[in-house]
Amino acid sequence: VFGKDITLILILNNLSFDHKTVKVDMSASTILYTRRAVAEILKATTSVDLRSKQGKHIRIKIPYSYYGKYLTTDKRIQVTALCEVMHMHGVKLLVEKTIILEDTNIIIKIPRRVVVNKAVTLEISYANPLPEPVNRCVLLVTLMNQQVKIHLARLAPRERSKIHFEFTPRRTGPLQLQVDFSCDKFSHVKGFVTIAVAPA
């Protein structure tokens, strides 16, 4: 989840009967959806001794403080581990993993029954998933081909807040409501809901 530390485990297994020493070069970068690297956020090298048929786990931790300011709106991180078997010329293995971080959900609560030409109140709740405060918070609510921009108070670390939003549906049938939450540390956290409007 975006805002939390990331923990990964690299599993190395020696499938042969010979003792092996493996040098592991690990790196992590924030990337775009095109896989183009934006910034390298982690680099580490370690050496692992593996006896015959032995397996070992290497834990990799990427704190939020490493990736937070380098993440794009794609919220993608590419982690690679280049594993080289020592004293065996040219025996290398590259392991790659792309992580797509999840946004905290926007929660939209609607009444059980929504009736045409009758005012209805929705509850929209939103959160700051980060371990630091966020400012310049804005909710953009799109409904019935209209957009309403709502400026919100700053949010403390990990704080969740909510607003109540009133509107009157002018026709029966399905209505699409879209909510887009942005602030100074991240942008475009989206929430959607389809509202079924009943006849009077």
Automatic annotation (TrEMBL):
Pfam families: Transglut_C (PF00927). SUPFAM superfamilies: Transglutaminase, two C-terminal domains (SSF49309). One of its GO terms (cellular component) is cytoplasm. It comes from the Eukaryota. Residues 2-88, 106-197 form the Transglutaminase C-terminal domain. GO terms for molecular function: protein-glutamine gamma-glutamyltransferase activity. Keywords: Transferase. InterPro entries: Ig-like_fold, Transglutaminase, Transglutaminase_C, Transglutaminase_C_sf. Coiled coil: none annotated. Belongs to the transglutaminase superfamily. Transglutaminase family. This is TGM3 glutamyltransferase. It comes from Pelecanoides urinatrix (Common diving petrel). The gene is Tgm3_2.
